[in-house]
Amino acid sequence: MKKNNRLLPDWKDSGGLQQVSRMMKCVLFFMLTLVCGVEGKVYSQQYTLDLHLKQTSLEEVFNRIEAQTGLKFLYNTLLIDSKGKVDVEARQEDIRKVLAELLNPLGLTYILNSNHIVVKQADAAAPQEKTVIKGKVTDSKGSPLPGVTVRIKGTNIGVVSDNDGHYELTLPAGTDPTLIFSFVGMLSQEAKYTGQRELNITLHENISEMEEVVVTGIFTKAKESYTGAVTTITEKELKAAGNHNLLSSIRNLDPSFNIIENLEYGSDPNRLPDVTMRGRTSMDVNVRDLQEDANTQSSANMPLFILDGFEISLQRMMDMDQELVESITLLKDASATALYGSRGANGIVVITSKRPEPGKLRVSYRGTVNIEAPDFSSYNLMNASEKLEYERLANLYHSSYNDTQLKLEQLYNQRKIDVERGVDTYWLKYPVRTGVGSRHSLRIDGGADHFNYAVTLSYNNIAGVMKQSARNTLSGNLFFQYEYKNLKFQNDFTVSYNKNNNSPYGSFSEYATLSPLYTPYNDDGSLKKMLSEETVTTNNPQITGNPLYNATLPSRNDGRYTNLQNNFAMEWNILPELFMRARLGLTKQDDRSDVYLSRDHTSFETDYYTGDNYKLRGSYVYSTAYYFAYEGDITLNYNQTFKDKHQLYAGFSFNFADDKTENYGFTAQGFSALNKDNIGMASTYAVESKPSSSEDHSRRFGSILNLNYTYNHRYFVDFSGKLEGSSKFGSNDRIAPFWSAGIGWNIHNEKFWGNPEWLTQAKIRSSVGYTGNVTFSPYQAQTTYQYSSDNIYLNGVGADIIALGNEDLKWQRKFTVNLGCDLDFWEGRFSLTGEYFREYTKDVLMDISLPPSLGFIDYKENFGEMENKGWSLNLRTQMLRDTERELYWSLAFGTSDSKNKIKKITDKLGAMNDENNKNETKKPVPLYEEGESLDALKAVPSLGIDPETGKEVFVKKDGSLTTIWDYNDKVVCGTTDPKFRGTLNSFLTFKGISLNMSFNFQWGGQTYNQTLASRVEGVNPNSNCDRRVLYDRWKKPGDRTFFKNIALEENVSNLTTRFVQDYNYFQIGSISLGYEMRRELCRKIGLTGLRFNFNMGDIARFSSVKEERGLSYPFARQFTFSLSASL
Fold first, then answer.
1. How far apart are CA 1118 and CA 1095, in angstroms?
2. Residue 623 CA to chain centroid, in angstroms?
């Protein structure tokens, strides 16, 4: 006998001892049954059960009942095991009813007393008549559906279809029940049993079915009662939106997720993009760096990325294998972001990875070939003949000195002869290629009832369009899950290795500016080192190196990182309504980068590297970084429904984290030979340079309380509160509270609607809350010192104070209000989601000026204030839903807008504005002024080109006209933030063939056309440039043109409203054509699934502004061929 009093008939022995044993067991079982039968007459206590179990053994069901009631089961183990697995669904139901519905169809009965439940075979004198019905469940394509729940209506009796879609269900005797067939993502179907032995069912996809839960990364909440702004993107939608990378797929599906276009770096695979969600709500704390480097703007406004509950970097997100992703949830307002406190102020992207399912071993593979073709459609450069004429008009061949004039005429005549004999070098073709890369993903998963596992290997090779530029990522993942009774253990280990190479051909801008009059090769076919070495005048011709020669030299410009991440989780189902989870994540990453230039590189062909400095030719820049972090949390969830009307959810979580980064680097120079690409061969550190290092170390902790109450599925309220502490702030204000509250109303569940067929969902909701922000250096609040070897006294190294600390430095806070509605009509035929939000940020960290007498010019203080508001609208409609012909077509449209305004800045920032306003005259820089937007453009008003003189006419602040540009006359003349941006997606499926298209658009903003300012008017006449400089210029009095006279001395153009243009565009983001083979055909070739797919990305772009795009690295069009197979 086991300790829990269960009888074991499988005890084995031999001979007479075995017979005696069997007799003793029978006598004992009879006595217990007799006793229990007598005691059962006095049973009066009522027990209710709450069970939700699928394909569970009877033994496990009994364990769950014991945990809820305290009763003990007695049964014959072999008898129970022979009954297989069952489904049980009970919500606050009496134990007698549950046991009867569970045991009677299995030919079992029970006896219940005050302490025990004895389960036995039903009385043989009145045997149960068994009625068995069989069948197969398929989808609309005829493919079998495994895992479909088949249940008798009004009972808890049911089974689940097997891997081939077959099911077999035993029906109660003497009944003609109705069967219910249900499956996630499919429309449920009922079928009446009329005596048939076989019943086959076809389930149709429920395209409009909304997700039942919202995954926040901390708590999993019912979507029906969720008050926040959220977008959930499924695996199917991700694949339909293209497979270039996860970030671009999200952008194609939700317009509030914006990848800021980078005209400089185009399609560079090694450049991290700038990402925002719902616009910009903050300024970077280091304002001077922000003015000098626009990339820091994105870091202050970048959303948080969470993978399975743990934070990951943008770099890891960009390199992630899309095949591992189950879904992505975008959390946008305070209802969700308050859960993450300071980290969630800019929104959260929650990625949920795929988890293995129990069953037989499954192997799946996806192979992809990626082709990238350079896109030069935005370039309109002059040919050699045009370039020579442009140089003549720009007076490059004119001098007031006779000797010089003669040489210039000889140079012009020689070049004219070269042009006539065919010299016309198209430099853009030399550094580029059609990049061919590949991606491979292999996954093996399976498991039994209590143990599941998955092993994934993936390799991604991105071949950029610049020659030899590449990004290679190799990653492996091992996941396992073990269940023991009501405990679940998970471990997820991922290792990634990335190697990235930048092109040795240098910057693409070098080739865009090289004159077509130059030729890269000598007459003998060898590469020229210098395209021009001697000058006639100071500016003609310029000394120019050959970038193709540099590309042949030994060089290095690469980086690499190794990332190890292990996430462990333990889950404990304490009670059906009470759940606890503990998680611990460890992350370690090592980075390294090397940049080596050979001593023969043309950049060293200057006067500086002659004489004694000749030995300093060649350089090597080395840097390395080490990162280690851990984070963990303990979460408790309670979910209970009372009287079928009151649903209460409560969650509590405590979390902690620690991260540390160390950076080291130095620059060396002086290499004795051109192929010495080892840093140990350098002769010295760079002039006025020495090794440097830095360290960032921060800690945080917090506790979260979340409450949600729903009444009768109609009215719901939600509250979240978080107390968070961070080491980044002053010692007097390191802990801060954050909160959010929301209310909502499911109008469609009101009785006055009368349950109309046309209305599926009508929900309105609102939320408010306070969140914080800590996207800055860990040591802003502390007084910091710098040790210097220049300060040595008595063998001691001195230190200088470089920053004054602020013990009162506190959290940057953001108050958010969100109003939203969700509408759905005719079971998903038409759905709409609308949002309006307003965000007010205060206590923005800024530089405050100090009197010079204190020894410091500034320090950090909470002073700035900002406002950001906007709206979003998402529509989805099913144009066709013909299940008989297997034809489905749906359209999705999304648009959004956000506007920001600076409410308050410091005097220090105001002084910086004046300084930048004065010094930067050629291109817009961020100028922060109270009452204006972060995205505002400022320039001097212009009336255009004077037809009589060919000079530009400006409008001064007093209204007078002048031809002299003055920075004091700058005014706000537009904003780079559009009135709205959006996406349009089409999803068409017919008999396994799918055609999906994605479009992006923007309307209503402005841009400063830098091509006109620096590549037409402001261009160096020795450089090649846009054709408009030659054909659209002013030539003679009376000409009405857009561009000035080429020959003017003041041809360089300063900031003017003439180059501020309305910026609207429409882009064909991706087109995807796929075919999925029917499952019955797959089985004939030994597979369970097979799909082919062809995708095109960044196909075409139609813009109101003609400007050069991809200056340092060209843009590219992507073509992808993929195959997915599983067995």
1. 8
2. 27
Vertex 978 angle, CA 973 and 984, to 5°? 160
Q: How far apart are CA 507 and CA 996, in angstroms?
A: 36
The whole-chain average pLDDT of the chain stands at 82
Please state, for a pLDDT cut of 70, what percent of the chain lies above it.
83
Whether the Cβ atoms of residue 811 and residue 843 lie closer than 8 Å to each other: yes
More confident residue, 582 or 687: 582
- Cβ neighbours, 10 Å, residue 74: 21
Q: Which of 317, 323, 186, 191 is CA-nearest to residue 259?
A: 317
Indicate the pLDDT class of residue 129, thresholds 50, 70 and 90. low
Local structure of 917: helix, strand or coil: helix
The mean per-residue pLDDT over the stretch 1056-1064 comes to 93
Residue-wise DSSP of 32-94: HHHHHHHHHTT-----EEEEEEEEEEHHHHHHHHHHHH--EEE-BHHHHHTT-EEEEEEEEEE
- How many whole angstroms separate alpha carbon 10 and alpha carbon 569? 37
The enclosing H or E element of 316 equals helix 314-318
Cis bond before residue 541 (omega within 30° of 0): yes
For residues 328 and 306, the answer to whether their CB atoms sit within 8 Å is no
What tokens does 523 get? Answer: 């007459």
Q: What is the mean pLDDT of residues 1098-1104?
A: 92
In the numeric block, which tokens belong to residue 39? Answer: 């005691």
Distance CA 392, CA 64 (A): 92
**Bridge-based pairing state of the strands 149-152 and 178-182:** antiparallel
Q: Please compute the mean of the pLDDT values over residues 15-20 and round it to a whole number.
A: 42
- Asked if residue 27 has pLDDT above 60, the reply is no
**Residue 1016 DSSP one-character state:** I
Give the type of residue at 666: F
pLDDT at 914 over 80: no
Between residues 449 and 646, which one has the greater pLDDT? 646
Query: Can you tell me the distance from the alpha carbon of 514 to that of 381, in angstroms, rounded to the nearest whole number?
Result: 10
What is the mean predicted confidence (pLDDT) over 158-182?
80
Distances (CA, A) of 368 to 371, 676, 1079: 10, 38, 22
- pLDDT over threshold 50, residue 963: yes
Helix (H, G, I), strand (E, B) or coil at 753: helix
Cα–Cα distance, 246 to 253 (Å, whole number): 11
Which pLDDT belongs to residue 208? Answer: 42
Q: Which residues sit opposite 385 in a β-bridge?
A: none
Alpha-carbon span 209 to 203, nearest angstrom: 14
Q: What helix, strand, coil percent values describe the chain, rounded to 5?
A: 20, 45, 35
Q: What are phi and psi of 601, to 5 degrees?
A: -60, 140
Q: Is the dihedral of CA 289, 291, 293, 294 positive or negative?
A: positive
3-state secondary structure at position 972: strand
The lowest-confidence range among 238-247, 693-702, 1104-1113 is 238-247
For residues 94 and 773, give the distance between their C-alpha atoms in angstroms, rounded to a whole number: 51
Mean pLDDT of 775-794: 63
For 896, the 3-state DSSP assignment is strand
Write the DSSP string, 788-854: EEEEEETTEEEEEEEE---TT---EEEEEEEEEEEEEETTTTEEEEEEEEEEEEEEEEEEEE--GGG
Band (pLDDT 50/70/90 cuts) for residue 281 is low
- What is the average per-residue pLDDT within 681-692? 87
Residues 6+ apart with CB under 8 A from 978: 897, 1002, 1003, 1004, 1005, 1063, 1064
Q: How far is CA 713 from the centre of its chain?
A: 33
Q: How confident is the model at residue 297 (pLDDT cuts 50, 70, 90)?
A: very low
Over residues 242-251, mean pLDDT? 79
Say if CB 211 and CB 328 are below 8 A apart.
no
